[in-house]
Amino acid sequence: MSLVIPAWNEEGRLGQTLERYCPSFKKWGTNFEIIVVTDGSTDRTVEIAGRYSSQGVRVISCSDRLGKGGAIIRGLEVARFDWSGFVDADGPVPPEDVLMLLNYLSEYDCAIASRFLNPNEISEGRTFARSILSRLWNLIVSSILFLDIRDTQCGVKLFRTSAVRQVLPSVALTNWAFDASLLFHLKQAGCRILEVPVKWTESSGSKLNIPRDGSLMLISLLGIRAMNIRAWRIRWSHSGPADHAEGESPEPLSTP
Hints:
Order of helices and strands: EHEHEHEHEHEHHEH
Shape: globular
Number of domains: 1
Strand order of the largest sheet: 3-2-1-4-6-5-7
Largest sheet: 7 strands, mixed
Structural class: alpha/beta
CATH topology: Spore Coat Polysaccharide Biosynthesis Protein SpsA, Chain A
Number of helices: 8
Helix content: 40-55%
């Protein structure tokens, strides 16, 4: 497994995550790597990540800001193993649950962690306001992108590397809407996606600015939908209704 961690100025949280993940993955008994992509960090993130190089951690240091999605894409492009994925730098999901998601990749192309799939699952440290905002965001994603996924933003997603790499060139968003965009393109490509309930803990230090980033995320989603509609219309205009059997609709194109 190749697990990417995008890290922008994460000196306060990254070390604790690696302390938990590295021993658990080693105990798992198979090959793994953790790829820390330092996304234009100006603090000690690179230094801290480098301390774990003997424990299966690779560090890709990027001087320019790539955005969360850009850092993840960079890591996935160099993943060495057949299974790959990403997790937030604060390690919101215990390593045991990350490994549990791997069990589903024999049947599915993508297994994603979900905070809302099991109503009896209580997320530790989750404020009421953040919970409401998360559910509202997922409702918006479902309405705009028609994704039947309850939680697009939970910070752990694993893939068959061959499946995720085929859609990476189509993913143009690198902001906080990256997760929804990636899932949209995977769905468009016919990949099988499974949500799995996990234990999840919210930590302080999030870089998300809800008023600013929330507006940008919404605009990004509308852009994805607009581009997809445009691609569908182009294909329809080139083929025409005569090329399709009666009652049959042409398949929509994925976003270019």
